[in-house]
Amino acid sequence: MKAKKIIKWSLAVVGIIIISLVGFGFWFINLVKQNAAEKIDYSSITPQELPYLSEDSVVHRGKILAVVTSTDMMGTSEKETGFEFTELSRAYYVFIANGFDVDVASPKGGKAPVVMDDMGKYDYAFLNDDLAQSKIKNTIPMSRVNANEYEAIYFVGGKGAMFDFPQNTHIQSVVRNLYESGKIVGAVCHGPAALTNVQLSSGDLLIKNKQVSGFTNAEELLLISDAREIFPFLLQDKLSQNGARFSEGPKYLENVAIDGKIVTGQNPWSTWLVAESMIKQLGYQPKIREVTDEENAEMVLRSYEHAGIDSAIKTIVKMQSKDLKINKAFLGGHTIIAIWQLQFGKAFDFIRLIKLLQN
Question: How wide is the angle at C-alpha 147 spanned by C-alphas 144 and 153, nearest 5°?
């Protein structure tokens, strides 16, 4: 009888927990969901409709080469991959708006595999840009790239880059040529995998004693617990092993390292700053761009990480006084991440921030 009572009470507790979790899930979805007035459909927007691109044109300044992965599968894991669409689209338009033509290359050339997440208006504009789409369907093989044509090179992230960037001799040759010619080398997220084995004419590795960022071990392992088995290496480990001074910021928040002619970003949310920092390192003041609601949300969370909840609240109040939009879904995603890591105090703080946006 005693055993039956224990089982009965155990089932009741489990049931209460399940009901509570389901209830919290529905409540949380409604909390971060946009209302009708906030919803904007960007799916049909074109580049011509973006003032950033269509107004105040800049004199032509040369060409930048963007490089994407040709790999569509993570090793033998049967997990699909490709280049991160937003890491190309956003940087592409920064380069275009600031007077540069952009070519797109890949290790193999031809149509590049793509991963599409967290789409915003610039990303949909890229999707509806016939010229841009032609470039990712017909990428230039790295073996045919003439480094002398470009003022900079930019390596787009995506987990596929971990497999076909590091050992590619054509990538290494082009990067060495550009860097030693005083040109700019940029990369974001997994893109810095391209820099891990680049050897300069002196015999030193490019990244030796350089401050470099990229997708961190903590970010990788939180999303893919068996990443050490799937990938040939973890990016942070490899960059550090090959002499880089690795710059690690808070998980899934903007962090960019600039070391002379090398500009690297930690994750997809670093893309805007990487691209605009490359423009600065090329010697130009980046064209003014309207900050996105996702960037505003990211700024709120950086305020939280650096100075706590009161600072984050002040940041929201200041933004609201200027009628700036803040992406609730971005805050919601970080709330879920905090819960995954059993950081319930942080999750509660983030919920407070989201509720503040309801007012």
Answer: 105
